[in-house]
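Project standup — Tuesday

K.O.: blocked on the structure for the chain from last sprint. Re-posting the sequence here as requested.
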Amino acid sequence: MSNPQGRIGLLATISTAVAALICVSVGLLVFDPSATGADALRTGGLAAGSVVALYALWLNDRRRRVDEQRQQLDNQRNDLETQRYQLERERQQLEDRKTDQEHSRAADERFARSVEILGNEADQVRVGAMHALAGLARSHREYTQTVLDVLCSYLRRPFDHPYWDLRNRDDAQTVPEHSRRERTVRQTAAKLIASLLPSTDAEQPEWYSLDVAGANLDRFDLSDRVVGSLNASGCRFRHTTSFAGTVFLSKVDLREVTFLHSINADGAVFQGTTRLCGLWGMAPASFAGTTFRGEVDLRSARFADHATFRLAVLHGQLDLRYAHFDGGVDLRVREPAPTVSLYHTEVDTSIDVHLPRSWELTEHSSPNRAYIWIAESPIGRS
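H.V.: unblocked you, prediction finished:
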């Protein structure tokens, strides 16, 4: 034994065993005359051995209890370590939550300040506010749709500019300074909207919707972007409008829109219903190779310049009732052919008109005018 108590216990056991040996041997010789010295010594040895055995059993039991206590202490120590780890983790989570709340509060304040100064009279201040909103959307993706809504609402504000006046389309006329500056601000808003939308190269693009109904838009370019839904009904588009390669995940509303200049939607994909009824195209319109997976409504649409749908893919109904193509048209779409609705669909025969096989022209009461009708259905190959 390495401790004093162990040594004392061992000495006491040895002393007790010796005493038992002597006492039993002497007692046996005194009280049993027939016992020999060998018998007395053997019996005394057994008594001494019993004492040693009892001490060994006690010692083992003590060692067992010490081991159990040590195990309990180890378990308690592990429990304390586990609790400490959990407390530390909870503390860290609280710190992270506090940091997130601080970041969120800072983002909210930044958003509120930017929206507030959008009403500033100085155009450069408004442009700075728009860039601040776009930066917020890039660093906090949860703000993207909200920022897009704010920019779209800015574009929906009334905008008085002579270039969008259909009654007087003289681009050489004098433009008021405030209109010229506001036009620059609105161009910035349109560019930032496009920059916040996911690219068609993204593996899992987010769904963001745009609502610019009734806006006067300038150089509106969503090419190679992914858009959830688009509401641009009643808009007036100036300069080239580009939807080339754009993917629209839901419905597109272009009812009663006016394209003062060309529109390019080559290779675009319209996943939902496409409303183009009442459209007025005053310049070339190209939907070459465009995919329409839903219904295409072109009722009462009027194209003053050339319009092409060559190699467009149509999976839903195509409604051309009361549509007018006054500057030439190419309707040679790909198969599979959709269900087509034609009624008073007019073309100008003095300019090239390209129709799918089995589509024909019928007489019109006016010179150089004709109606389109289908001799057989579905649409034949181009």
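K.O.: great, moving the ticket to review. DSSP finds five helices and 27 strands in the chain. Residues 4-87 form one domain.
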